[in-house]
Fold:
Amino acid sequence: MILEPNMLIDEMSVLRILDQTLLPNEEVFIDLKTTEEIWEAIRKLRVRGAPAIGIAAGFGAYLAAKNIEADDFDTFHRLWKEKLDYLATSRPTAVNLFYALERMEKCALDNKDKTIPEIKALLKTESENIRLEDIEQNKKISQFGLSLIKDGDTVLTHCNAGPIATSHYGTALGPILLAKELGMDIKVYADETRPLLQGARLTAFELHRAGVDVTLICDNMASIVMKQGKVQACFVGCDRVAMNGDAANKIGTSGVAILAKHYGIPFYVLGPTTTIDRNAKTGNDIKIELRDPEEIKTMWYEKPMAPMGVKTYNPAFDVTDNELITAIVTEKGVVYPPYVENLKKLFE
Ligand code: MRU
Structure:
């Protein structure tokens, strides 16, 4: 069973999300009413995963617009822009956040001659369209991804790129859930994904609930299962893909790709074209989020697991070099190298 969409906006103008920080122990939906609450939910990873962040930001932009009282467009835009800029500071790496905010702003600017209530109505539709388009993209990515593996294969994945990280099906987990629906036997190794354990808490939760044969491993166990011949493909999501194919995803992903190359295992990055940043020429143009040291030292533990005052470095993402990536799977098809040429074609 695939989880229901993890967010909705009702007539009371509330963004309702499944609080992912509480999984797998509690399934709690929370209502977000203000821009500040949505900002906090994104920053704290209550809603996370690049497409889901974009969808939440789109709804956040609509909610912010809805609450603005202005008679003329310029006043409306000035007040609203402050809220958009604020939402843009919630997390830096997933480009879907910026894609959604820019798309919402463009919708308003393209309709500046309309009345403010009309613009607000258009923004509501636009935010919903971002979510609906993501569902369709997920479905296509799942089909293209499934064409790359065969019945009986085992896939290794890192972090969580499943239904709760998107609108509905997921990207890296989409083909696996589709395979399950079709009665195929695809097994999964899920890296636990230090330090925030998205693999253990979310991927293992989603796949186990869907009845997929999933085995949880610590991040440092990926090489042994690869060496033992237990993995036929790696499927990972992405937060921002540069135009040369360099792909930012959860910290540790590039290590998996290096191991996969060593053992001759295909390494696939799956994501919608909304995750491709046309302004990023290479991975060097991707901003990497640095997070709180406590995520490494104390979070999840009963007692601190590092000496007080010890220095830490906690980048939340890394960039996998394009030469380690066998193909990038988008809703428009499977893109193989040379990426500089072939990614460009997606937008022609
Ligand atoms: O820090 P997170 O949990 O938001 O990181 C998420 C990932 O790295 C996912 O793999 C990525 O966003 C793709 S989600 C379809």
Notes: Confidence is low (pLDDT under 50) at residues 1-5. The first helix runs from residue 35 to 43.
